[in-house]
Every structure is written in structure tokens, then in C-alpha cells.
Specification:
There is one protein chain. This protein is mainly β. The chain has one helix and five strands, in the order H-E-E-E-E-E. Strands 1-4-5 form a three-stranded antiparallel sheet, with no helix packed on it. The longest helix is centred in the first third of the chain and has 6 residues. The protein is rod-shaped. It starts with 7 loop residues before the first helix and ends in a 6-residue tail after the last strand.
């Protein structure tokens, strides 16, 4: 499927970026003694910016996170 063309406003005025964070899923499992729950995350959080109008995404380096 070919990418969608940019909306007219993005072409004329540029993108309107909004910051987003996508958290990984947390998996809860029982510990070895079967009395406590342990949490594990499969990956690191993903920080990115998304254009409000067209949905284009670009990487974003979050400072202080």
C-alpha cells in the first residue's frame, strides 16, 4: 500500500508535532517460591513525535526521562 500524500496544511505550513510515549507491556509472573509476583517488561519505552494532521512519525530523544 503506497503512503498517503501529505495534507495541504502540512505542505504549506509544516507539520504540527505532538510528543508521544509508547509503554511496553508489563508481564506479571509468579516468583520461584510461588508467593510473590514479579514484573518484567519486554522492551524499553518508545519516545516519538507524531504529526497531528497527517500521522507521520519521527524519533524523539526524551531528555530527563
Amino acid at each position: 500500500m503506497p503512503p498517503l500524500p501529505k495534507p495541504v496544511f502540512c505542505k504549506l505550513l509544516g507539520h504540527t508535532w505532538q510528543c508521544h510515549v509508547e509503554d511496553p507491556k508489563i508481564v506479571w509472573t509468579a516468583s520461584k517460591n510461588m508467593c510473590e509476583l514479579e514484573q518484567t517488561a519486554s522492551e524499553e519505552p518508545r519516545f516519538f513525535q507524531r504529526c497531528v494532521r497527517c500521522g507521520e512519525e519521527r524519533p524523539w530523544e526524551a531528555k530527563g526521562a
